[in-house]
Write a structure and sequence with these properties.
Blueprint: E1 7-9, H1 27-41, E2 47-50, E3 55-58, E4 61-64, H2 66-73, H3 77-92, H4 102-105, E5 109-115, H5 116-128, H6 133-136, E6 140-142, E7 147-154, E8 158-161, H7 164-170, H8 174-187, E9 195-198, E10 201-203, H9 218-222, E11 230-236, E12 239-244, H10 248-261, E13 267-276, E14 279-282, H11 292-314, E15 323-325, E16 329-331, E17 339-345, E18 349-353, E19 357-361, H12 370-374, E20 377-379, H13 380-387, E21 391-393, E22 400-403, H14 409-414
Parallel strand pairs: 15-18, 17-19
Antiparallel strand pairs: 1-8, 2-3, 3-4, 5-7, 6-7, 7-8, 9-10, 10-12, 11-12, 11-13, 13-14, 16-17, 18-22, 19-20, 21-22
Helix pairs in contact: 1-3, 5-11
Amino acid sequence: MNKFVYFIIILSLFQSSNGLANMLPNEHSFALKIVSELKKSKKCAVVTYDKKIKEINCDGHKTYTTNIFKDYQNLPSKDQNNFIVDLVPVLSGKLPTEEKCYKDAAPLLMPRVRERFHFEALKIYLKANGADKASAEIPYLLVNDHLAVGLTLNTKNAITTISKQQLKDWKIDFNIALDRAIENLRSLSNDHPFTEAHSGVWVSSWKDSYDPSRLLLPEMIRALKVKGEPIAFLPNRDTLIIVGSEDSKGLKKAIELVYKGRKSHRAATCMPFILRGEKLEEFKASRDHPLYEDLGYLAKLSNQDQYEEQRSILTPTLENDSTMIAEYKIITPQQGESFSLSVVLDGFMTYLPESDKVALTKGDDPEQSEEEFSSRLISFEKFKEVCGHILERTDHYPQRYLIKRFPNENELKSMGIK
């Protein structure tokens, strides 16, 4: 297997009484302890730690430490030392699952349903950190516009994302491997059913990093007693919430659970989805829905999270200071509905997110009043209608448009902007 493999470490509770006397105080100390253990194990010829990007490199096998440090912090003190020791084969890339034979790997395959942006971001991260093209290609299948499913190898201590190169080495088609992975998931899903957190609100109880993947088992979702069509939320990797589309009280409770669940450091998306037949779609409530604003805000919040992370990934790749990765911000006025906003600034090429409204700002008056700023707001639809010819659709997800010049006076006038 290529060494540029992305590892996501599972939080495991080890039954040992030999723990560290005190928790390592910070991520840097934690990383240095891991490096020390890796060197003592002699599993790697060269082990380095880059404090700036928080990355351990073991013979070219790279791991970011932020999430595993948070897992470590959440463990009882008696389990922390074993957690570090058991990370050694994972972080070194020397796992017994480094099998070239698909037959041996097949029982360990699992499908991982994640927000589509997870796969897009992973690809960019791998390329940015030196992975070759084949290793950076992570095969996945779209579940809908916002969710996707990929393949993982599930072992005791780690979940390994399967690359296109690994499938090639195994000489197996992605869809065949995915079918096997779904069957593996189904066989592991019968012992821990959903629990009813509130009347009509069902919450998954597996907590195995595959809870959202149970959306691939529609018969299990359909078996839950809800009012209307099942609506699904997946606020983090260990939580799947199901509630009925015609259950306003249940939906309100579910939304509360979503806000609680998204506080996890392994947050996913708080966008609502609805199961119609066998198809899972984004749930967009009608304007007369009693929770229209609440549900719409969740979707905006998911977009804001993803656009911000996308911005942090893309900004270092910019070649000059005259190009801007525009922010996507949620504005909540004292009166009226919340809306998303992005800014096009005169004098800059802009990668623009798809927000509800766009502010077209000249930039020659940094102290412009709120009234002046508001007068330069335009709906995204109107902006595309008038200035579609200067918007270049990019291949990013979430969607962005490259704008190489600011709208001219005639175009501004057509949009009602002075």
